[in-house]
Design a protein that fits this description.
- The complex is a heterodimer of chains A (405) and B (469).
- Chain A is an all-alpha fold and 405 residues long.
- Chain A has one domain.
- Chain A is 74% helix and 1% strand.
- In chain A, strands 1-2 form a two-stranded antiparallel sheet.
- Chain B has two domains: 54 residues, no CATH class; 398 residues, no CATH class.
- Chain B is built from 14 helices and no strands.
- In chain B, 33% of the residues are buried.
- Chain B is elongated, with a radius of gyration of 27 Å.
- Helix content of chain B is 67%, strand content 0%.
- In chain B, helix 2 packs parallel to helix 5, helix 3 packs antiparallel against helix 4 and helix 5 runs antiparallel to helix 10.
- The chains are: A mainly alpha (405), B mainly alpha (469).
- At the A-B interface, helix 7, helix 8, helix 10, helix 11 and helix 12 of A face helix 9, helix 12 and helix 13 of B.
Chain lengths: 405, 469
């Protein structure tokens, strides 16, 4: 069917397949047109890959935590590597758990899509937008990782004796803390690099995933709103209002289902963005000396800000578009006001339809202002604290190793 | 939904749900005889309700405003002042006919606006370069914010200009639908007085600021030419660090600075004027309702009042979609400047002239912020005032229409927002105050003692004259 590529399953397929290359969402049958092709099995190569990735990230986490424990004092920047690996470890676990429920969620989504198919069709151009987002994220993350590798290489070159020894110097400088605990070996460093790359990708994948799922929900509400706006100020029969109300109910249920599945991911995403934005601002331009350092810092910080803001704005849009039917409902002419319209108004005005962060916070526009205020407050406090401390360049160098700086 | 085919094409309603397929004489009775073409001549197919927020009604009104308290007449001189400073370049701004308002990209006013925007952008880039050279600290960040505000203001008003004709059109339609309430009393006078007073004080403050800088510089220079050059080097150091001093450039800098100063004051004034105009319309509705307090009125009465309220709500939402970025700009910069001024005073001791300037400037800024908050939140306040009357409706009159009206008033948030991040109501003023106090306390507590500025006169003079040569 034409336009079926804009359905939820097909549109999100590129992003999910990209995630699978990095050991996230180990569900099989993603490229099908129907939810029945999706299948999750515990004994499959994808799940095994995920478990390997988990083990690798856990190793990194242990190394970082050990480093933190033996250090003299704990600073804000020194916490960054353990937090980074803890966040990505949790994210991979959450995606594994989400994968077990993914076929169920997509089939529920498909049911709602089928009811809307006759009158509304599929959202326009949604597939193109998803493809663009997935491609953009992949490119940007790879570029960022390569830039981090390059800056590490620049640091390693003075320590090497030339020739193939550069490889050894590069890895020992990058995974300095790991190679304090164990002997240097090429296969170990390759494994460490692989799990590091997986972790970096997961870190930026979370934001894009929440953005695209919110966009899919928003599109559904927008389609519904357009259909409703066509009768704005006109007299429509009871049957019309009953069907509209029921469809709105279905959309609200769908939002709640999606929220149940991804709310912990959303909270993790928000918290990690908040922490890393504060960290980047804190480190800002103090320790940057070279031109390449400037470029790397601005690129990495800009990409982080872009990801975080796109996630916040897209997730807040779900709440906004769910309130759009109000305008039409308030304008229903007096002669055609009936019990269905009244029920519809009650539902729209009293029910809060939004994505939440583990049901602790509701994602709406007001939250964005609160987050910005929190960042400014924490920044002020951090800067004052930082003024009283000595140099912390060592922690920052390790932080640079994991592409945060 | 196959129900869509059964939509009654016979009946015609406006976007706010008002039925207008009544008999012409009934319509005339309701509108008091001062209305447009009787709607019996209108074809149902003429109604087009577009998606995506375009509000278009039945047919264009060729109506010349006679009452000077209508929005078109009250705002014409106000917008003309704005256009002298390259804001909101709409053609036909002084005409009493809303149909004459037009925005076209290829016209002189738009070119003037774009030139000013580029000027602001250039100065903004200069300040960025200046701060990247290492002069950045909180005390001197005002210039940065000042020109960022100027640039953002130009862009926002250019955006607004594209939608201004449609906004005025919708406003006029609403005024016409609700002509039985009349026009707000003395709106014209209030707008003129408010703008005169605000702009006069703003000009005074700007001149006082220039005077403080000149008097500080005058102590160190001997000749008049030296004084002028020194003044420009001091005040516009972000430009003259990178470019050699020359009189034409100095004049340009002065002009851009003057315009930016105007913009800083104007956005607050603009928000205040529009809020006042809108809340006065709500007040007219409330006065009409107050007359019915405790009386038994037919359901027809309540239906009309509800539909009028809905029209005003639609108008508020459209106004909000036009000016919410300006509201956000206004509140954000006011908060920043208050924090900055408080921080500066609490840490440094200054000379007498500077102290006087500081008091004048700070109290004016505070007064302006409070005035904008109160004016803008008055829309929200006035829109809810009708609740009391609805709760007091006698039992015989309480029917479905009153209930519907009550539901709408209770659940519909009729207010301006700042880009939908926050709603402008009375609580916002308290939140702003709390935030300002928190930030100032945090910054003053933890900051290091001021070391930059030399308080000794001779040292200061030496520093300044060193820059001259």
């Amino acid at each position: 069917m034409s336009g079926a590529n804009n359905s939820f399953q097909r549109a999100l397929c590129p992003l999910l397949v990209a995630g699978q290359c990095f050991a996230l969402m180990p569900v099989s049958g993603l490229t099908g047109y129907d939810a029945s092709t999706l299948q999750f099995r515990w004994l499959s190569p994808r799940v095994a890959y995920t478990f390997l990735s988990l083990v690798g990230i856990f190793c990194h986490l242990c190394v970082c935590v050990r480093e933190l424990v033996v250090a003299d004092h704990i600073t804000y920047s020194a916490c960054a590597p353990p937090i980074f690996f803890a966040v990505t470890f949790l994210a991979t676990c959450f995606y594994l758990r989400l994968a077990t429920k993914w076929p169920d969620l997509v089939s529920k989504w498909q049911t709602v899509e089928q009811t809307m198919l006759k009158d509304y069709g599929y959202p326009r151009n949604f597939e193109r937008r998803c493809k663009f987002c997935a491609a953009f994220m992949l490119t940007a993350s790879t570029v960022e990782h390569l830039m981090a590798l390059y800056s590490c290489l620049l640091r390693a070159l003075p320590r090497s004796t030339g020739g193939l020894d550069v490889v050894r110097a590069f890895y020992t400088s990058w995974f300095e803390q790991a190679f304090k605990m164990t002997e240097y070996a090429l296969w170990k460093s390759l494994l460490l690099q692989l799990s590091n790359f997986l972790a970096t990708f997961t870190w930026s994948y979370m934001d894009m995933y929440v953005t695209l799922v919110s966009m899919a929900l928003t599109e559904k509400f927008l389609q519904f709103g357009e259909g409703l706006r066509a009768v704005r100020g006109k007299a429509a029969p009871l049957k019309f209002w009953r069907e509209a109300r029921q469809l709105y109910d279905n959309l609200c249920c769908l939002t709640r289902t999606v929220d149940e599945h991804i709310s912990h991911l959303v909270l993790l995403c928000l918290a990690s963005d908040l922490y890393f934005i504060c960290l980047q601002l804190f480190n800002s331009l103090k320790n940057v000396k070279t031109l390449y350092g400037y470029i790397y810092f601005f690129y990495s910080f800009g990409y982080l800000l872009f990801r975080a803001s796109s996630m916040c704005f897209c997730a807040a849009a779900v709440n906004e578009v769910s309130q759009k039917p109000r305008d039409v409902l308030y304008a229903v002419p007096a002669g055609t006001y009936n019990a269905e319209v009244e029920r519809f108004i009650d539902r729209v005005t009293t029910d809060e339809v939004a994505l939440t962060g583990f049901r602790l916070i509701t994602l709406n526009r007001r939250l964005i202002l609160t987050i910005v205020g929190s960042i400014v407050t924490y920044e002020l406090l951090l800067v004052q604290q930082g003024n009283g401390q000595g140099s912390f360049s060592e922690e920052l160098e390790y932080a640079a190793n994991i592409t945060i700086m | 939904m196959e129900g869509a085919e059964n939509i009654h094409n016979r009946q015609i309603f406006t976007v706010s749900g008002k039925d207008i397929t009544r008999a012409p004489d009934e319509w005339r009775r309701i509108t008091g005889g001062k209305h447009l073409v009787p709607p019996s001549a209108v074809e149902p197919s003429v109604i087009k309700l577009y998606p995506s927020n375009r509000i278009r009604d039945i047919r264009p009104i060729n109506y010349s405003e006679n009452d000077q308290n209508s929005l078109r007449r009250s705002m014409s001189s106000f917008m003309l002042i704005a256009q002298c400073f390259a804001l909101c370049p709409v053609q036909g701004i002084t005409s009493p006919q809303v149909q004459d308002l037009r925005f076209r990209w290829r016209c002189l006013r738009v070119v003037y606006s774009i030139v000013m925007t580029l000027g602001m952008a250039t100065t903004f880039i200069f300040t960025i370069a200046f701060y990247m050279k290492g002069f950045f600290n909180f005390e001197t960040s005002t210039t940065f914010v000042f020109y960022a505000l100027g640039f953002a203001c130009c862009v926002c008003f250019l955006n607004l200009a594209r939608r201004w004709p449609r906004l005025e059109d919708l406003w006029q339609r609403t005024e016409q639908e609700q002509i039985k309430y009349g026009y707000p009393k003395n709106l014209h006078l209030k707008i003129n007085v408010m703008s005169t007073v605000t702009l006069a004080v703003a000009l005074g403050e700007h001149l006082l600021e220039k005077y403080t800088v000149i008097s500080a510089v005058a102590r160190c220079s001997d000749t008049k030419a030296e004084l002028i050059e020194l003044y420009y080097l001091m005040d516009y150091s972000y430009v003259f660090q990178f470019v050699k001093f020359s009189p034409p450039l100095a004049v340009l800098c002065e002009i851009v600075n003057f315009f930016a100063s105007f913009y800083w004051n104007f956005i607050d004034l603009f928000v205040m004027v529009l809020s006042m105009a809108l809340s006065s319309r709500f007040r007219l509705l409330n006065n009409h309702l107050r007359l019915a307090l405790g009386k038994v009125k037919p359901e027809e009465f309540w239906r009309e009042v509800r539909e009028d309220y809905n029209s005003l709500s639609v108008l508020t939402k459209y106004l909000d979609s036009c000016i919410s970025s300006i509201v956000l700009l206004s509140f954000a910069t006011n908060m920043f400047y208050i924090c900055q001024q408080l921080y500066n005073t609490l840490r440094k001791s200054v000379g007498t002239v500077k102290l006087v300037y500081f008091f004048v400037s700070f109290s004016y800024l505070l007064f302006r912020t409070v005035a904008v908050s109160l004016c803008a939140s008055s829309i929200h306040e006035e829109s809810r005032a009708a609740k009391d009357f609805l709760y007091a409706v006698p039992t015989q009159s309480y029917k479905i229409e009153v209930h519907r009206f009550l539901v709408q008033i209770s659940t519909d948030a009729v207010a301006l927002t700042g880009c939908r991040f926050f709603t402008v109501n009375r609580t916002l003023l308290l939140t702003l105050g709390g935030t300002v106090v928190t930030y100032v306390v945090v910054m003053v507590q933890f900051s290091s003692p001021s070391s930059g500025y030399a308080t000794n006169d001779t040292e200061l003079c030496l520093k300044m004259t060193a820059r001259l040569h």
